[in-house]
Design a protein that fits this description.
The chain has 521 residues and is mainly alpha-helical. It contains 15 helices and 4 strands.
Length: 521
């Protein structure tokens, strides 16, 4: 019975339609809330649109709102902004025209179109054209994706105008790109063939330095093909495609030749005047101007050798084999010359080690006397050092003769030996000068230094006697002692056999000249 009464009550409620009034009130309240949200969204859209700095940000904002812009309240708020969007697009078109005009003027002034950094001319110009076209086409495509913009007559007229502009824009850029590509295709074959017939190596007639004759035009061809191979603008010209197919071979060739040329030029730049006659013939054999040398081998043969698979055959002149042989010869020559120079530097270091006083004060103190007790010991140590150094110097000179492939009886080798002999002679001069200068400075009364020598005055009735004696003729007197020290200093130059045997002297000291200043010759 209870359930029956509930059913009757529900039937009575539906019959009186009281629920319909409640539903209408709830629906009206919901609609008011939706409209309020739409008004808020419209306010947000207007604020964001006003803050947009350019077309890109404005279209991003439109994409973010999407279909919300079709809602009546938001559409009413956004309607005024479409005219602003059209004005922004118009300004963008004007700016694109200005960019194009400046680009064309710069191209006429420079003779080639300005391109992005590190890009080749043609590919760079085509890239610029695509970028400028995208600068216009992208906003236009965004306009076409706004269907609710076509509700007004001005918007429809704008679309018609944009359609015609898009067609003109497409035709123009296609013409510009095809013209660039066609001009490049006509000239690339001739330039490539000319550069491939040039020698591998080029020599400067004045400096005699050599350079790799890998013309920048060939580098540009490789770079252009690399950029243009995926551009779908047309077929790559056969000569350019053939060069590009062997790009790895050209890269290895250029790298190897560049390494060889750097070594060769290093030899020419660092070789001394006295060394050059010794290696002149070797330089000529390596990279001279004779028949069959690298300076006569056209670069196109490298491509032929690679394409025919005959890198070391007579049919292809044995180009790769010849390059390998020349590279080894140049490397060997550079290493030998550098080793010879290192040996000369070692000789200079050796003779420089002699430049210290043989005799010094006791314990190297400024107030002490000259240490006569250990003079002999110091002298023997210095003599031993000079003798060992002399043996080492002779071994280094002999090694240089082998390194430079020199004939010991030739005049050019004798001139080289004289050059090294002069280094040793200067070393002895400096060493002796250093010891003499030490004695002079420490016996100069004006210097105000402590005495270097000591002489005692003894009373031996009925005479006064100096110890050691100051009489010049006394064997063990002071003058004899000083002269002995000087002779010991000069004698170091007699401990090394003369390098320049053709000079007629056995060593670097000349006896019987009658004066200490005549110790050298």
């Amino acid at each position: 019975m209870g359930q029956h009464r509930n059913v009757l009550r529900l039937h009575e409620d539906f019959a009186t339609l009281r629920w319909l009034k409640d539903f209408e009130q709830d629906a009206f309240g919901f609609q008011q809330k939706v409209e309020d949200i739409d008004r808020r969204l419209g306010t947000v859209f207007i604020q964001a649109f006003d803050d947009a700095s350019d077309l890109e940000h404005a279209f991003k904002l439109l994409d973010m709102f999407g279909s919300l812009l079709e809602r009546p309240v938001i559409a009413a708020d956004a309607a005024d902004k479409y005219s602003v969007l059209i004005s922004m697009f118009s300004r963008a078109l004007d700016h694109a025209r200005l960019i194009y005009s400046r680009h064309i003027q710069t191209e006429l002034k420079l003779g080639s179109p300005p391109v992005h950094k590190n890009m080749p001319p043609v590919a760079g110009a085509l890239c610029w054209a695509r970028e400028l076209r995208a600068r216009i086409q992208v906003p236009f495509d965004h306009f076409r994706r706004i269907p609710h913009l076509c509700v007004s007559v001005p918007a429809k007229l704008l679309y018609d105008h944009l359609d015609s502009f898009s067609l003109i824009n497409l035709i123009f850029f296609l013409w510009y790109q095809e013209k660039l590509y066609a001009d490049w295709s006509q000239t690339v074959s001739e330039k490539s063939q000319y550069n491939l017939t040039q020698p591998l190596i080029r020599r400067d007639p004045e400096t005699k330095l050599v350079t790799v004759n890998f013309d920048p035009q060939l580098v540009l061809v490789l770079r252009e093909v690399s950029y243009l191979s995926g551009s779908r603008l047309g077929a790559i010209p056969p000569p350019a495609a053939e060069i590009y197919s062997s790009k790895e071979s050209y890269r290895q060739l250029a790298a190897n030749l560049e390494l060889m040329v750097n070594r060769y030029n290093k030899v020419l730049k660092t070789v001394l005047e006295v060394e050059y006659p010794l290696i002149q013939e070797q330089l000529r054999l390596n990279l001279g101007t004779g028949k069959g040398e690298l300076s006569d081998v056209p670069m196109v043969l490298m491509l032929l050798a690679e394409s025919r698979g005959c890198s070391c055959t007579v049919d292809c002149w044995g180009v790769w084999d010849h390059i390998s042989m020349v590279m080894d010869d140049v490397h060997d020559l550079e290493q030998r010359i550098q080793k010879a120079k290192n040996n000369v530097e070692e000789i200079q270091t050796i003779v420089g080690s002699w430049a210290s006083p043989i005799f010094v004060r006791r314990d190297c103190k400024t107030e002490s006397l000259l240490s006569l007790e250990d003079c002999q010991d110091r002298l023997e140590r210095r003599y031993s050092l000079v003798r060992e150094s002399g043996q080492r110097i002779h071994l280094l000179v002999k090694e240089n003769q082998s390194l430079l492939l020199a004939d010991p009886a030739s005049d050019i080798w004798k001139a080289y030996v004289d050059y090294v002999d002069e280094i040793v002679l200067d070393g002895f001069f400096t060493a002796i000068e250093c010891s003499l200068k030490y004695l002079l400075e420490n016996t100069d009364p004006k210097a105000g230094l402590a005495p270097l020598f000591e002489v005692q005055l003894d009373l031996v009735i009925p005479d006064l006697i100096f110890q050691p004696s100051l009489d010049p003729g006394t064997n063990d007197g002071f003058y004899n002692m000083v002269e002995g020290l000087l002779n010991d200093i000069y004698r170091i130059s007699s401990l090394v056999p003369r390098l320049a045997e053709h000079s007629g002297f056995l060593h670097y000291q000349v006896r019987g000249c009658g004066a200490p200043s005549c110790w050298w010759q």
